[in-house]
Design brief:
Length: 320
């Protein structure tokens, strides 16, 4: 028997913002799809079910049903009106990609199958990770667009390792893997700071590729408007956000808390500015570790990030 590609989340509310659950991707009809990919490729067998694997459901669960009703219908100052601006925009939650704990690579294969189906219907995809390895199958699926795509990467870390412990598709490697995909053209990396898995060689490789690396300190010095000006062209774009790229004062639920990250005002401006600049085919939010949250503040900011992406894309005329 073939295992289903996705399954219903296990929380109440079980879907993000109580949007309809759709796990039959053969008949997908949506403007925006939300998808959980809980499991990255572990560097040790015991690490597959890490705390980040709980994040897709934790993000969904963070907003109560009463607050969801309020948020959908009331004026939101972040986006200049209600979430969908009175439009008939179809948003669905496709649940979580299923896993096989005896075959770690099966999760990535299913994730790529699912995201190819979603992108194949020209649906905007919002992916909830999981560690940063989960971006690899999603970016592979971008091949269906058959056009050069600019990758915009927010992170404290460079993520250009070829391998760690022999694993080439873990959370330290997504941007190197992206650089090897013919459909990924320009890469802009924002927010690097502190110490991560990158060594001098990885930095040199990224620069040799042509990656535009904007450290957190350069970003703070020049401002987000100047950063947006450095992002080339008019799209299309894919946006990958590692939660540790955001300052831990507002995003404490990460494994690698590093001071000096993007503020709320900066990450909001990046999302709105990028959406206005050109079509963003999708975004992912990864590396949230719920057990490190304080007062639900990380989940609140995760929900706000997603709503700002949805609201800004509606106002940018993405949906006809």
């Amino acid at each position: 028997m073939t295992k289903k590609l996705t399954k219903s989340p296990g929380t109440i509310p079980c879907t993000f913002f109580d949007f309809p659950l759709v796990t039959n991707l053969h008949s997908l009809d949506a403007d925006i799809a939300i998808l959980g990919i809980p499991y990255g490729m572990p560097y040790e067998p015991s690490a597959m079910a890490n705390d980040q694997s709980r994040a897709p459901d934790a993000i969904r669960q963070a907003t109560s049903l009463s607050d969801i009703k309020y948020a959908k219908t009331h004026f939101d100052w972040d986006i200049g009106g209600s979430l969908l601006n009175g439009r008939d925009i179809k948003i669905v939650d496709c649940g979580n990609v299923t896993a096989d704990m005896t075959d770690h690579k099966a999760h990535y294969r299913r994730a790529e199958q699912v995201t190819r189906k979603i992108f194949g219907t020209n649906t905007i995809l919002i992916t909830l990770g999981g560690d940063h390895g989960i971006s690899i199958p999603v970016m592979r699926a971008l091949e269906v667009y058959e056009t050069p795509i600019t990758l915009v990467h927010v992170d404290a870390h460079l993520d250009w390792r070829h391998e760690v412990n022999g694993e080439t598709e873990g959370y330290s490697s997504p941007i190197r893997r992206a650089s090897q995909m013919p459909w990924i053209d320009k890469i802009v990396q924002i927010g690097m700071r502190g110490i991560g898995s990158a060594r001098t060689g990885e930095v040199q490789d990224a620069l040799a590729y042509g990656s535009d690396i904007i450290s957190a300190y350069d970003m703070h010095d020049v401002g987000m408007d100047a950063v947006l000006d450095r992002i080339p062209g008019d799209g299309p774009y894919y946006l990958t956000i590692d939660a540790d790229g955001i300052d831990p004062a507002i995003m404490p639920a990460v494994i690698a808390q590093t001071p000096g990250g993007l503020t709320w005002v900066q990450i909001r401006k990046l999302i709105h500015g990028l959406v206005k600049k050109g079509r963003v085919l999708g975004m992912d939010l990864v590396e949230i570790a719920p057990k490190y949250d304080i007062g639900n503040i990380s989940m609140i900011h995760a929900e706000r990030l997603i709503c700002n992406f949805i609201g800004s894309s509606v106002r940018a005329g993405y949906y006809g």
